[in-house]
Amino acid sequence: MSSQPGWTVTRNYKLPTAWLATFEHKADANTRTIGVNSEMDALPKIGHACGHNLIAISGVAVALAIKAVFEHFDLPGKISLLGTPAEEGGRGKVKLMEAGAYDGVAACLMSHPAPGPKNTVSLTSCLAMKHIEAEYTGRTAHAALSPWEGTNALDAAVLAYTNIAAMRQQMHPTWRVHGIFEGKNWAVNVIPEYAKYRLIVRAPTRAEQEVAMKKVLPSLEAAALSTGCEVKVDVYGDTLDLRQNRALGDDVANTFMARYGRVERELWGIKSASTDFGNVTYVISHQPYPDFPALHPGYAIPTVPDGGNHTPMFASAATTEDAHKATLDLAKALALTGVRVVKDDEFYAKVISTFEFDKEARKKGVIGV
């Protein structure tokens, strides 16, 4: 962006690997600012298997298209393009929000690729998520000579796993609980004195995720009690569900359906995944800046069967010309909505009223679609 005329670029913005690019055209203190998110990340060994190469350029394309409209039609406007790192577990946007990086925008837009029918966009939500680490401590002993002298921490971790597995029959089908074991200095002939069970608990809304947590946490404690181990439980990484602003989504949908394809709200998308952009849609801005609505549509790129996000096949799919075309098609629709946020007072009033209504709906556990 530093090579593009008219943009002011700040490197290392609030975080060492974040950046901010801003543009203004004939703006004054009353001119609204449209926020755009260029998400940056990759996965170990499989690279852009979640399509962050596309997500990053999508934000750039949206911002450049809005700038072109402001200049061509000589419209007052402001753009804030934020490059955000560490979505894959690092909660980069949460850290940037806490540092005030999003303050002052009227709305924020981004998008995300996924497998799906060609020429379609999805406006589904994403799941709220929390991480749990349960560290079990027992006592080591020789597993053959004197196992009765030991207290098996791995048994405790395995029992916690099976407790949760047994609970799945009573779990809502939209919940997701998944995890792995970790240890240190394990040997097959030694009773493990330490084991860690790392897991993630997800549910469609923040309120429902809290219900799921209340069911999962006692299972971890019970495993320690029944094996005679000590347990330390750490809960962290509060990632919130994605609250799609209906008015913004409808506007993008109208443009996309008129020119490029169709829009769906339920059938496919990344609705069983989670994103730190969910926290952006819940954002509480720092005073004197108001809270703001946001939109995060998914869009389909061509993939092979079973070649979804976080697979090597999706990494390959994200490099194709068709994937880039799909990215730019949605970017054009998002850009038009971004222009309306800045210039159409009646439309923006509707966006804000929708946002305020959703604030109440989220308290009741209503999914933000």
TrEMBL record:
Pfam families xref list: M20_dimer, Peptidase_M20
Domain Peptidase M20 dimerisation as annotated: residue spans: 135-217
InterPro entries reported in the protein's UniProt record: Bact_exopeptidase_dim_dom, Peptidase_M20, Peptidase_M20/M20A_hydrolases, Peptidase_M20_dimer, Xaa-Arg_dipeptidase
Stated name of the protein: Peptidase M20 domain-containing protein 2
Single annotated GO MF: dipeptidase activity
Superkingdom classification of source: Eukaryota
Classification via PANTHER family: PEPTIDASE M20, XAA-ARG DIPEPTIDASE
CDD domains given in the database record: M20_ACY1L2-like (cd05672)
Family: Belongs to the peptidase M20A family.
